[in-house]
Amino acid sequence: MKKACLALTLLGLLMFLPNVARAxxxxxxxxxxxxxxxxxxxxxxxxxxxxTLSIDSVFQDGVDVSGxxxxxxIAWNTNATLTSETDPxxxxxxxxxxxDDGWQSATASASGTPVQDPQGLPITFTFTGTTPTEFxxxxxxxxxxxxxxxxxxxxxxxxxxxxNNRGNNCTPIPEPATLTxxxxxxxxxxxxxxxxxxxxx
Length: 201
What we know:
Elements: H1 2-14, E1 30-34, E2 42-49, E3 52-60, E4 63-64, E5 70-76, E6 81-85, E7 97-98, E8 104-107, E9 109-110, E10 113-114, E11 123-128, E12 135-143, E13 149-152, H2 176-200
Antiparallel strand pairs: 1-2, 2-3, 3-4, 3-11, 5-8, 5-12, 6-11, 7-8, 9-10, 12-13
Helix pairs in contact: 1-2
C-alpha cells in the first residue's frame, strides 16, 4: 500500500509539469502563435479573403481572451500597402513603416496616442499590392493566470513548440487535467504522511 501511495504521489506531481501542447483553438486555418518555455501558448485566429485580413479571435492556453486583448501592431511580408481597417478607435494607415527585411508594419494610434482599450474583434485590414502571406501581430494587455497583464508577438511563421518562437511574458493557464493530476499527487502525499503519523502514535 505504501509503494502504491508513493507511486501515485510521484505520478501526480510529475504530471503537473507545465504542458502547453494544446489543440488548435482556432480550428484550423491561418493561425499566428507565440510560445516560449514556461510561457503561455498564444493563438491569434486569422482569416484571409482576397486582400483583406481579419483578426477573428485570440486564445491564451485555449481560453478565449478576445474581449480583453489589444492589438498594437501588425506586420506583413510583402510590399503591400495597408489602405483601410475597421478598428473603430484607432488610425493604422498613417503609421505604416517599411523595414530592411522587406516586411512592413503598422501600429494602432489615435491622434498619436497608442491604443488604450480593447478594439473588439473581429477587425479587418485591407491591402493593395502583393497580397501578404505571412503575418506577425503584437497582442497584449490581457490578464494572465498570475493576474497581471501580458503581451506576445504571435506569428504565422512560428510553430507552437518550436525553438525559435518569439517569446512572451504570459503566465500559463493550468489545464483542468493538469489540476486534476496535481490534486491526485497531493492526495497521495497526504496518504503517505497520514500513514507515517499513524505509526508514530
